[in-house]
Write a structure and sequence with these properties.
It contains one helix and no strands. By secondary structure, it is an all-alpha fold.
């Protein structure tokens, strides 16, 4: 079997899979960061109000 023929057949699938993985990873991390910042903001607001 020719290596380059196999590689060219599998490369698009692997590339799309990696692209999907990076995008999902970025979304999940941004959501986690947003929740952490929101909790910090809410804690600061509660502290200002004395609750």
């Amino acid at each position: 079997m020719d290596f380059w023929a196999d590689f060219s057949a599998l490369f698009p699938m692997v590339a799309v899979g990696l692209l999907f993985w990076f995008i999902m990873r970025a979304l999940i991390r941004s959501d986690k960061t947003e929740r952490k910042m929101l909790a910090k903001y809410e804690a600061e607001e509660r502290a200002k109000r004395g609750l």
